[in-house]
Amino acid sequence: MLNNSKNQLNILLTKNQIIMRIAIRYLCFLVVMMSAGTLYSQTITGKVTDNENLPLPGATVIVKGTQTSTITDIDGSYKLTNVKTGSTLEFSFIGFNTQSVSANNSVVNVSLKPSSQELNEVVIVGAVMKKGDLTGAVSSVSGDKLREVPTPNVVQALQGRASGVYVQQSAVPGQSGTIRIRGNNSLNFGGNPIFVIDGLITDSNFENINPDDVASMEVLKDASATALYGSRAANGVIVITTKKGSRSGEAKIQYDTWTGVSEFARTIPLMNGQQLFDLRVDAYANRYMDENPGADRAAYVNQIKSNGSTVFAPYELESYRTGKSYNWLDQVTRSGFQTNHNLSFSGGGEKGTYFVSFNYVNQEGLLKNSDFKRYNGKINLTQDLKSWLQFGTNTTFSRSKSNYQEGSAFGVALGANPLLPIDGKSTYLRYGEVFDQNLYNPIRSLDIINSSSRNRLTSSNFLSAKPLKGLDIRTTLSVDIADQANFDYIPSYTGQSLRNSMDGEAHHYRYSQFNYQWDNTVSYSKVFAAKHDVNLMGGFSVMSNSGNSTDVRARGFVSDDLTYMALSGAYQKDNAQLSSNFTDYSNQSYFARANYTYDGKYTITGTVRRDGSSKFGPNNKWGTFPSIAGSWDIAKENFLSGFEKLDQLKFRVGYGMVGNQNVDAYRYFALYNAQVSNNSGTYVSDNYIDNFDLRWEKQKQFNVGLDTGFFQNRLTASANYFHINNDDLLMLRNMPVSSGYKYKLDNIGATTNEGIEVELRGDIIRNKDFKWNVSANISSAKNKVTKLYGDATEIYNLGGYSNNEIQRTGNFFLGQSVNTVYVFQYDGIAQQGENLTGVNYGSRTVQAGDIKIKDRNGDGVINDQDRYVVGDLNPDYYGGFSTDLNYKGFALNAVFSYSIGGKRPSGTYESYMNSGGMSAAHTDLLDRWTPTNTNTDVPRAYYGGGRYTLGETDKAIQDASFLRLNALTLSYTLQDKVAESVFLKNVRFYVTGSNLFIVTKYKGYDPEGGDSYPISRMVVMGLNVSL
Amino acid sequence: MYLFNQINLKNYFMKAKIIAFMAVAIFSASCSSDFLEEEPKSSLTAAQAYGSLGKIEPVLLGAITNWRNMQKDRAGLYTSLGTDEAQQGALQVTGDANQAGLDLYNGFLSQENQAIGQLWNDRWPVIEVAAQTIRALGTNTEDDSAKRDLLMGEASFLRATLMFELTQYWGEIPINDKAKTAEFGLRRQPLPLVYSYIIADLERAIEKLPVSQSNPAFPAKGVAQALLGKVYLYAPEASGHRDYTKAKQWFGEVITSGKYSLLPNYADVFSPDHANSSESLYEWQYTNNWPDNNQIQWQTGSRVLANINQYAYFGGYDLILPTQYCYKDKTDGGIWEPGDVRKEASIRYDFTYKGVKPTLPAGFGGDELDPHIKKFEDIRVEGKQSFWNSGKNKAYIRYSDVLLNYAECLNELGNTTEAEGYVNQVRTRAFGGTLPEAMKWSGLSQSQFRVQILDERMRELAFEGWRRMDLLRTGKLVELVGARNKWAKQNGTIAAFHNLYPIPIGEIKLNDEIGPENQNPGY
Hints:
The complex is a heterodimer. By secondary structure, chain A is mostly beta strands. Helices cover about 10% and strands about 45% of the residues of chain A. In chain A, the strands form 14 sheets. Chain A has a 22-stranded antiparallel beta barrel. In chain A, strands 10-15-16-13-14 form a five-stranded mixed β-sheet. The longest helix of chain A has 19 residues. Chain A is globular, with a radius of gyration of 33 Å. Helices cover about 50% and strands about 5% of the residues of chain B. In chain B, the strands form three sheets. Chain B has a two-stranded antiparallel ribbon with strand order 2-4. Chain B has a two-stranded antiparallel sheet with strand order 3-7. Chains A and B meet through helix 1, helix 2, strand 23, strand 27 and strand 28 of A and helix 1, strand 1, helix 2, helix 3 and helix 5 of B. Strand 32 of chain A pairs antiparallel with strand 1 of chain B, so a sheet runs across the interface.
């Protein structure tokens, strides 16, 4: 029979006169060899059950490598005819691990084990992998977990969910926060990880991702996991797998919605009018007495508080005398409102699956005129063209639109003079009679239009051929297209327009990006002798990104009616500004991966990737990034077979190298930009010196980890230790200006970064009616600068308006952390009668009541040498924990995040503490030093400069530790019978409070979100229902 | 059975075709070798920018624009602060301690001073473009040698004028000569070498530059000659290059060229209607629109007017005000003599605006209605643009300056009588065209002349940026500023070491060849 078949093949080949390569002929030969052994057939019956021995109706049974398949009936039984002996049957059901069984008997019963995630495949650089094959440090977060925090933003939803992942929320509606995986590695370029969404790599616009579409997120943290992304993986990789339909044939309609209101979570206590009045009196009198020692303070105070005051304007005296205080902030803020609707359809049949979803998000911000709207549509399809050929697409369209309040309005309103009556007509606000041209009237600023919209299409499309069992040839073409338009208009009557004499300004900014990625892989997997599981994969990939932007500012409009929509009406032709930018960059990569598992116990994985990037100099475009990792599941060893409560004890170790290329295109060139001056075209240097040796930043990562599971995996724990050596760090370095340049992008120095991560999860109670599970994670990362260029021991971050001021953060010191704070040491408040002549404070005023600085080097002079590294901004520990309580249909879920030991200055707090009564003041200044209140850390009131300020000292470096309740949810799920009586399924109502409280000593707005815009607290009500 | 196999075989061939197609496509894509070559699209690389004369010209004009930009706004006035003719307004002194240090000569006038950092940082990148241009022209082989010579003259002038400023204020400075990068490094070089470079650059500029340029942004021969005269006159003795004979020779070249003359009416010199006049050897070119406005009025005007109407053409924010010495009459201890029209043209005493005489509101510094600088007022913005848009051209070297410098050379060379003649030429215009006998300079001794010429230069050239250098070269900075500048006098800490600015901390921290031990003494 076998010979017969071979002969016929040979005859046919010659008959058809087809000339093919020997290799392909050989492939066909192999296929024939395999099919030849399967010609005897039989009928097979059996029953599919779950782990509790209950029948599983609707499970799919496929004869592998054929189109023969069936679905189990109501009691889980099935029947397949004409199955060749020795075939493999594959049993699958959503939510369970797929199981393969050889069809050697006529009855095959199978018990499926539930999978921890619905989907256990992920797409990695164009190749499909089982999640279990991701060796290395990986944290998984299921889509359901993400949705426990009602937010349209995946980044925010990730907070506190995975060890080693540090998320800082953004307070601005629609904006993603920042994510750091395993602390800081790169010094200047790129902290955010890349997102790989169904195989498409993206490093921006995360706010366009709809959390409702996410089936699972895998955070790849170490080199053995990320090595396949070699060149772009230095900051970690977050793989997002979106939902897919199931082949079960059952269609599913799912609707989710929530609606809520928000308010400011914290406010900064500022002085009211009366308090500020007193502060100003004190501040002026103190200065007066400094300048006129021995003068009559009381008489001066009396004068400045009287009519005709040289300090207070009549309106201020009036407010003071009548006890009035005005809150300007109320004029620009409101309650926020958010709503989210999500509708999806999914299903499939024998040959394909579909998942289609629609999402609408509307957030009205806490600042008037600020909002964010997003419309998402997604379609995920897979279809079998042939039994061995499949294609599919994961395509998302997203449109987002936001309006935001003019940048100065919130800050100006917050810092407005509480003695100044609310007035929507004045152009600028005042302290005294001084109109400050930086204080645009915030009420008028509300009329300024700032809008932004973005359309984004991401589409990842694959064709997969499986000509042989275990062989998968896959090609994937992905595009990421984004078009953004910002339109702004400044009406002619606002200070912003008047100050700059522009009679209205229309601003158009358009940005367009086209990104394509083409991944091609060949993978092969086979189990030899039932114990040797081999996976091989090799591939080639190209990526190219083209972006361009146009920026136009047109000025001079005869009326404000047409806003930004009629540029043709801008008459100030000489006062228009035009600019544009075109940028291309590209990557080329080759990669290979080999994975060998022996007996399900020992696994070893080797990966190598070679990457070329157009962003690097001609001398160093290419980099090679290898990795190797191994694991050992000790629980499977015979000597532990007696420990039945131990399900998993997997030891992992890995070492590898990844790279970072996250710098601007063309940045190794010194560039000359086109500019117009006096109607002449010119080229002007951008002050960068060229660096043709610019090369890859490299990270050598070592990771060792342990994954354990006990009591049928009711208790799982995972721990990792990592150590990362970062070399050739990409760094923007200040040049000595006498060289003729100010900046150089360079590969400088090295840092180390090490830490631990622990994740715990336990199903503490698991009864029919009552369930309680908890999970917690903790992470820590410590970094250190181990080398700078040459024998340099520090690199200073210069700033200020002339680049001649050493900044307190952003400096690098050999042997110190990356995120140091470099300031003077606070040495208390000078007291009356204290001898202050021992230290030369230069020209600073240090009198009784002023801040003293510690002369750290003891040379009697306070200067640059006395600054020191007070600490670093990194938290010592951070993470999150959550708890789920379920009783019958009720569930209570809480998600916390925390951070311990981080430091953070607050510029906002410092500026309010610096007030001399001619600007807004923090109520902490009520405890200021006076001759009768000497036991305080708050210096005396003073109007004028020349004293040491809080921000120059270590006292400004606040403890930013916090505990935050991210979300607290109470939900009720209708009993199935009740739901089904109205033809619904899985009906769940819930109410969630997000960001309900935060415990922190930090005096700025938020220890995470920073100063400029406070974080909100929100209460939402939601509904999930499926049909 | 046969049928079965035939179907299967069709299947195999299709598989083979599809897979072969995939393989060919992948293979061909992986072979493109120039896929990673990306050149900037919206900018030029240095190789392109200096690669042809047609591009060097706009590159050089860009550098000249940056040189002009140094004269704008606040930074364009920093060197005039802390002199005996001008000082900060009271509110400004209480605001920014760094800036206040420029007048107070206190501990804030240190290497960490931001204002001084800006002066230093702005100048070097322009020198770099000039040096790169000179290097590129040396190897350029295009046919148009006239164009090459012209560009060489312009670049040489540009490097010289900036090095001259830097060395005047900081003393020893690095030299940017692309032919000697390895030898010079970024070290501070001795004064004789620095000045010899400046002189060589200017000699080359004089040789190559034309008598006039159609675009007034480019320097012509006359300004290079005048500047070389100034270099010989202003060079410190320690440089070995102070030479009154050579200075006189180069100023003389300007005077005998016949190209330049004084405008009959002094006020016209500061009128936008007389831009690039016969009196101007070079002026920085501005307009009323950003980025070509100069914002100087914003710094020199009065906040009281700004409070009334931000489109009042003499409003501003009081960064810099005349000293009492500069605005008072001689009889009150100032400089002004009766009949000198330059007083009213240079300084605003009356703040009446649209018939209203303003008063000082609460919360102000107190000196906002004291006399203010008038030379930069730009009537063109009145009522329609903010004084921030002020944009009259600003003089670099005027012919009257050349005459006064020439007179000084004559005096130093012992020819005081002839020197007086040139001063009187300037004074004749100052007194409306007829110089009263009592106001004529005559019979002065050499040393009397030296004293009086300093006042005459203040009257003629106040706030035009030469005062600090005049005080430095005559060694009078500490004495006169300590006595005449309100803040310096009040603080009483001005000392001899202040004759040089400190090297900014940024340079010291980042430059391996300029360490703390190379800082100017006293800082």
